[in-house]
Design goal:
By secondary structure, the chain is of the alpha+beta class. The protein is about 40% helix and about 15% strand.
Length: about 240
């Protein structure tokens, strides 16, 4: 069982409460006239200006401390693509529990070089029903794709205007994302051509698939990714 990461939220709230109490006492204290100053001399209430400014700064600092932190994932962007028949479809209609979303193009030389390894990965994990490799051809059409992926061209989705690719922040190809239950694991963005035969890559993907099949929460899945990166995960989930 993977070790759960510690949650700093409680410690942060205690520190914030102590700071708030101290500042509240300071703001409630009466203004003190400088020693030797006569009563009624100088503008009244001038001491409240720096106090007010300090209070605003403190409020912003506390907001930064207590603002909810992300869990390392983001909602997977959707958008319209075209299927092999040219009909509009959405990406969400084609994803599984764990989806390796791969943006590529036939006019991109690095994309072509990694296709064989990507196809081997898809084949080796084909017995895992909750996983699939989803290829999205950017600025391409099915006739251009067929020579490179054969019959798989009919399962490829097409993004002729970069619309969905740009929603993911993709500006150059190839780029690949790992989607888990409709969320993008932000720390698993593969930029450029990859060696999909790499044991570490397969161990990470296999670990994610296994934990999802076991019903793990996202926090545990992300902790498992870090464990698998360090080589401490079980290789059972990876072919």
């Amino acid at each position: 069982m993977s070790q759960q990461p510690t949650d700093p939220t409680t410690e942060t709230k205690v520190e914030a409460a102590v700071e708030t109490e101290a500042v509240t006492e300071a703001l409630d204290a009466p203004d003190q006239a400088p020693e030797g100053a006569k009563e009624g001399s100088g503008p009244q209430g001038l001491g409240m200006i720096p106090k007010l400014a300090f209070g605003i700064v403190l409020a912003l600092a506390l907001a930064a401390l207590l603002w909810p932190r992300g869990d390392g994932t983001s909602l997977a962007p959707n958008g319209f693509l075209l299927d092999s028949t040219g009909r509009p479809t959405t990406l969400a209609n084609h994803t599984t529990q764990v989806t390796l979303l791969h943006f590529w193009a036939t006019w991109c030389p690095p994309c072509i070089t990694e296709i064989p390894a990507l196809q081997r990965l898809a084949q080796d994990f084909s017995d895992r029903p909750g996983f699939q490799v989803m290829m999205v051809a950017v600025d391409d059409d099915i006739e251009e794709v067929k020579p490179f992926v054969g019959d798989r061209a009919f399962s490829v989705l097409y993004d002729p205007t970069w619309d969905v690719a740009h929603r993911y922040g993709t500006r150059k190809l190839p780029e690949t994302y790992v989607l888990v239950n409709g969320r993008v694991i932000e720390d698993l963005k593969y930029i450029g051509a990859q060696n999909w035969d790499n044991p570490e890559v397969r161990r990470i993907l296999g670990g994610i698939i296994q934990r999802v099949e076991d019903g793990a929460e996202m926090e545990e899945i992300l902790a498992g990714v870090e464990q698998d990166r360090d080589g401490g995960g079980s290789p059972a989930g990876a072919p």
